Request: fold
Amino acid sequence: MTEIFGIPLQAFLSQLLLGLVNGSFYAMLSLGLAVIFGLLNIVNFAHGTFYMMGAFGAWLLLQYLGLNYWFALILSPIAVGLLGVLVEKSMLRWLYKLDHLYGLLLTFGLALVLEGLFRQQFGVSGQPYQVPDLLRGATNLGFMILPNYRAWVVVASLVVCFATWYVIERTKLGAYLRAGTENPALTQAFGVNVPRMVTLTYAFGVALAGFAGVLASPIIQVNPLMGNNIIIVVFAVVVIGGMGSILGSILTGLSLGVIEGLTKVFYPEASSTVVFVIMAIVLLVRPAGLFGKEK
Amino acid sequence: MDNRTRVLYVALLVAGLAAPAVVYPIFLMKALCFALFASAFNLLVGFTGLLSFGHAMFLGTAGYICGHAVKVMGFPTEAGILAGVAVSALLGYLVGSLAIRRQGIYFAMITLAFSQMLYFIYLQAPFTGGEDGLQSIPRGKFLGLVNLEDDIAMYYFTFAIVLFGFWTIYRTVHSPFGQVLKAIRENEARALSLGYDVDKYKLLAFVLSAALSGLAGATKALVFKFETLTDVHWHMSGEVVLMTLLGGMGTILGPTVGAFIVVTLQNYLSALEGWVNVITGVIFIICVLAFRRGVVGEIAAFLKKA
Reply:
């Protein structure tokens, strides 16, 4: 058996893959946070809650409507996005002129309400969700056994992340969006419907979280607390990467997932804190974040 | 201080001294500890403009240190509290010097992340008792004479500590140092251009707030005779934000009013269990959307108009 630093290669690689899977979730969530923050100037504390609702959406669709994973992958994010439209139009809209901190506080309240409602309805024990038939089993690559579903999660999220990057950085729609981020008043003066763009951006950001939730549902038990557990780590990821760059968010998310996975191999006790330690180091060495611009 | 305010403070002092005759002392002590905690938090958010979303780490750290010092190491009560405050202040210095390197909303995320890190550390550390927490902490004797196991004695002990905390905050806010903090809150760039070392002031305010939160946490651990992970969880950090927001950010009495309202609410709502979070969240949303000045802020605005 091949070994690497005294760890069997198979164990090493599977932790690496697990890290990549977690990293994909971090990447998608921090990407959504960054896009929302860019245009709305709001740090969406409820982001984890929307991720949780995406996962519950998948479970509910299967349980009550008999719709399988592939339908859920499309329908659940749409439902989450629609809820996002509602939230933006009814609440967030009133906060744009105020200090940033009110946006954080409002979405924090929203996270408490939604999490509390799901807890009342479904309890805190997890709901199992099956891996779809097509992706069951594993492929033997010779040097490691690759579980198909995990590979799919990494590929699917990378595709979604890069599609987002492409739309924002390389299309006309993205140009409007970037213009709106830079100077909303001027963009509106040029005839772009900025308020609608803001609504759609928020909806897109949370739908992305919902999509991540559906992807996560067969891997982790679907439960109401899953969102707020992950969101604080994602905040640390965002601090490390800085919210200025899309590619930066993706890259930071993925690499921190991998680092966390490897810590699990070499020093399991530190695996829950390693991201925060890295955050402290980054703050010491490069306070603006790895991809952030000093303001 | 005008006459009206002075009368109000004296009335509050008398009410505080007489309260245990009518109200359950444990409840009062809990509310007082949270009032001090929220006031210490307000020193940062209300008077310096820094939103810390991880203040639970100071409450919980002091509670654990004080509990461990008194129970395992046999410290006298006063020394246990001082140890808790000292460690909280040190933690405040470490976290503060990292967090003030970023502005605005990042500050909130950084403090939240560090407090979550401490949560995980306390979950695994041997001296905290992990999920079970630190149980049966002795209250000891005040100056080796007054037995604090008696709830009434403990109440006046707590009352004195909290008064000391309030006094410190009041003096800080009304000192030249406090004026500089307000200047930073209003316009950081301008304060900097006037020659104030903004980072030094922010850090000092952060350490002071951490130490006073620690004072509240250490006292609270003695009141309840136990310390658990609840006090370092991010829910607790959110709770103190709620108390301050509800009572009125940037007012002297607001956080105390907010703390009493929230603790009373929790007392009555505890039968509803899971709904408590939902109701807390709804209050949060209402406060942010329609009630940003808080109870005391609204009253002050009303009195000014009248």
Remarks:
- Chain B has 13 helices and two strands.
- The mean pLDDT of chain B is 90.
